[in-house]
Design a protein that fits this description.
The chain has about 325 residues and is mainly α. About 70% of the residues lie in helices and about 0% in strands.
């Protein structure tokens, strides 16, 4: 591994994301593209929405450059970049003027379908437990759900950037000494998220918006599915476990009650914590500690395959614990 090269790439992407987000902040303020507080919001002042304009542009460009310089499968990565760009355009339009949920879903289904059909790697996503066609369909459904939950969970300052960093750091730790081509893509994704986090850390000066969260969820979903294809299925499940659990449990309850699950709300566990008095910063720090534990469990499962079941049980305990804490324990708004 060429550490000086990767260090230079990391710094370059971080600075581009940092500077690009600053430019986006000025543009969004000038155009008055703001997220105004309402009964479903967790913020209290109008805040520019659309920081993903910079993050998505920098990240997609970085992935394309990596592919063009010999990292990964060139045709596959370029297709991912084109599809992610299409999702960014669709999502930006949705940020400016909400689109029908059905239209957004169709765009996501097309994007994921194109990515899966063009994938050169025929390895199973679910360890060979499903027939090939069902394996691919299941991967597609999971991918679409993941990019949507990534958007659903982007509801307080700093949460999605820190989640992205945690997942990607886990992927880097797992693939650093392997022949996997995922390391550089996880690296630049971490750098882009970190550059945005500078402006999004509580109290946030800018929000990611759908133009950021949807393409980011799409690309991160590809990283996790590719990790599973390479034999690290348990790690691919463990790393995003908190986001998966909070979103799935909350949306499941809303569906059972007959509510429109695609509409904005304040019922996720992390939102409940804010309502109970936690500051955005204290919630994000609690989730960061949770993700640190999940990264450790993912690495443990990878290095100790015979103890994968124990790692998955530990994951369940950690995730259940943080959800209970966020929902039930009162906080201090001054933290």
């Amino acid at each position: 591994m060429n550490l000086p090269l990767f260090a230079g790439i990391f710094v370059a992407v971080f600075l581009l994301s940092l500077g690009g987000t600053r430019l986006a902040l000025g543009y969004l303020k000038q155009r008055a593209i703001l997220d105004h507080p309402n009964e479903r919001s967790s913020h209290t002042i109008p805040t520019p929405r659309g920081g993903g304009l910079a993050v998505s542009a920098v990240l997609i460009a970085a992935w394309a450059v990596l592919a063009l310089t010999g990292f990964g499968n060139l045709p596959q990565i370029l297709i991912l970049c084109v599809v992610a760009s299409g999702l960014a355009v669709l999502s930006w339009r949705d940020d400016l003027r909400p689109l029908p949920a059905s239209l957004r879903l169709v765009g996501q289904v097309v994007a994921v379908s194109v990515a899966l059909i063009s994938a050169p790697n025929e390895a199973a996503y679910f360890g060979g437990f499903l027939p090939p066609i069902l394996d691919t369909i299941a991967a597609g459904v999971l991918w679409i759900w993941f990019l949507n939950l990534f958007n659903f969970m982007d509801g307080i300052d700093g949460i999605t950037a820190t989640e992205t960093i945690a997942v990607c750091v886990g992927v880097m730790l797992i693939t650093a000494g392997a022949t996997s081509g995922l390391f550089p893509y996880a690296l630049v994704t971490t750098a882009a998220a970190l550059g945005f986090l500078w402006w999004n850390w509580p109290p946030a000066r800018i929000f990611l918006g759908d133009v950021g969260s949807i393409p980011l969820g799409f690309l991160l979903g590809w990283i996790l599915l590719s990790l599973a294809q390479e034999g690290y299925g348990a790690a691919a499940l463990i790393l995003p476990a908190y986001y998966f659990a909070d979103a799935t449990l909350t949306l499941g309850r809303r569906a059972i009650r007959g509510e429109r699950v695609w509409q904005a709300h304040k019922q996720h566990a992390y939102q409940r914590a804010v309502q109970r008095g936690w500051s955005h910063q204290s919630v994000v720090l609690a989730i960061m500690l949770t993700n640190l534990a999940l990264v450790g469990l993912a690495v443990f499962a990878t290095t100790n395959p015979s103890l994968t079941a124990q790692a998955l049980i530990g994951t369940g305990v950690v995730v259940a614990g943080i959800i209970v804490v966020l929902q039930k324990v009162g906080g201090n708004k001054n933290l």
